[in-house]
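Model: Ready when you are.
Researcher: Fold this.
Model:
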Amino acid sequence: MDVAMVLKNLQEDKAIHGEKLSGLDFSGQNLSGADLSGCDLSGCNFRDARLASSDLSDCNLQKCDFRGADLSLANLYNSDLTGARLRRANLTHANRTMAKITKWAMKGAYITGPTAYTE
């Protein structure tokens, strides 16, 4: 599945669960409200993308580029963000419960809400 097909399915309100979408370039795309739960999105480029209120639970998000992305209200429950880049990302009120994420990755991210990161 390529980026155009993913965007078309999401535009038609078709959920995309458990698909292998690794390495795709979603930079600058509007994926707000998208249901991508359980997908392998490792190595994807989400730089400056809008992912507000999206469901990224149980996803492989290893080595993704989220710099400048809007992840406000996103569901990152139980996702693996090992090696992800989050500088300037907006994680306001994002659910990061059980997410595998390092302190280093969170450096420079904008975070508020009940699951706010604390050192």
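Researcher: Now this one.
Model:
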Amino acid sequence: MCKEAIDISDIQIAPVPPQNGLVGFASFLIDNRFYIGNVAIFTSPSTLGGFRLVYPTKMGTSCFRPLYRQVGEAIQKKVIARYLELMKELFEDEEDLDVRLSRNDK
């Protein structure tokens, strides 16, 4: 179990047109020492908060993933909060934001 606090900063979000639940990509720093990029943001009605993060892989092998549930939850909480903040800035009308988040283009 991870007992140390983790600092997640410099969160950058690159929104994409929604497709099959994918709504964007995130990058961020952990403890100002590790850059993590290409983390996919998906809508997920079955999860608390309605989103999930998918970490990058290369040739079927994880490039990065949290080892502890608490770390994964902390990352997800901050990344999704930043994503929603950005969406509110881009879509000032909440109805437009609701439509974007609920779209599922094929």
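Researcher: Key takeaway?
Model: DSSP finds two helices and six strands in the chain.
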